[in-house]
Design brief:
about 140 residues, mainly alpha, two-stranded antiparallel sheet, about 5% strand
């Protein structure tokens, strides 16, 4: 068995094309052979792509750029040729330029929800404090 991505024969694992969590099964049509480094690469790429799509929906341009940069670095570090040559996977964290992630700026809806939550929490704490003081008087 060879890795379908780089052709290596060592440490072959079965990779789910459609993940089980999303309804994928263990049929041969949904499985492919990947060496361990290519398997790690594929799962990291999926996670970064999901984060990128989430930030695109939220319109967070600085975070979009950050996730796109991480994907680019991951892809550069783990080409099939480099994995075949090295025999290992390299995380995008090995490149120091990928370590910065801008603070998430809440959308208008998220900010309003946080404000409602803070008001409810303040009210509940005031009630608790009032009950506590009443208990001290009695």
């Amino acid at each position: 068995m060879n890795c379908i991505r780089c052709g290596r024969k060592e440490k072959i694992e079965r990779h789910h094309i459609k993940q089980r969590i999303y309804g994928g099964d263990d049929s041969d049509e949904n499985l492919e052979n990947r060496c361990q480094p290519c398997h790690k690469y594929e799962h990291t790429l999926r996670a970064l792509t999901a984060s990128l799509e989430y930030e695109k929906q939220r319109g967070q341009t600085d975070r979009i750029a950050c996730y796109q940069h991480r994907i680019d670095v991951l892809t550069e570090l783990n080409t099939p040729e480099l994995i075949r040559e090295r025999g290992t996977y390299l995380s995008y964290w090995t490149d120091r330029t990928t370590r910065y992630l801008p603070r998430r700026i809440p959308t208008k809806e998220e900010a309003e929800e946080q404000q409602r939550f803070d008001s409810l929490l303040a009210e509940a704490m005031a009630n608790q404090w009032g009950n506590y003081l009443e208990g001290l008087k009695g």
